[in-house]
Amino acid sequence: MGTCFSCNSTSILKNIRVVHINGYVEDFEEPISVRQVIGYPSKHFLCTSTLLLSTSSKPMNGNTHLQPGQVYFMLPYSVLQADVSPVDLTGLVKRLSAIAKASPLSSQNQTVWCSPSRSPSKAGAAEQYGVGKMNIGGRSPCKVQSWKPILDTISEKPYNRRSESDWQESY
């Protein structure tokens, strides 16, 4: 008796989303090609989750035009090495896909790169933190936080040797 309609948000469908391996998300307006996003020559490649999880994982051709509404991953070529297992790739795809979904565009605060040459992957330090972006809604975008490891001290003990303190205690 009732009718149900379902509709997805169209705000993300208008842009091309690129997620870097470190979790940084970029949105581009169309038309744009793979080569325009990654630059030339590049140490990175673009692919979709389907391409990455296929048995013959290959980077996308540089002349390929990216499709609006599609999520692409920018990854280093080292991901394609033979010692990377399909389980590792699946985990990577899940993590990057979750990041892409968790940072949707909103109509109040959209950051869209008008030109790939203004993208942080091509920009200097000043541009990486907001200069050269088109802000829709008047708010400045978030800054990228640097990653810093938490390290512990590792004590080392000699193997089959007595330390000076052990030697002094025995006399």
UniProtKB/TrEMBL annotation:
Source superkingdom: Eukaryota
Taxonomic lineage from the root: Eukaryota, Viridiplantae, Streptophyta, Embryophyta, Tracheophyta
Entries under Pfam families matching the protein: PADRE (PF14009)
Protein name: DUF4228 domain-containing protein
Organism: Phaseolus vulgaris
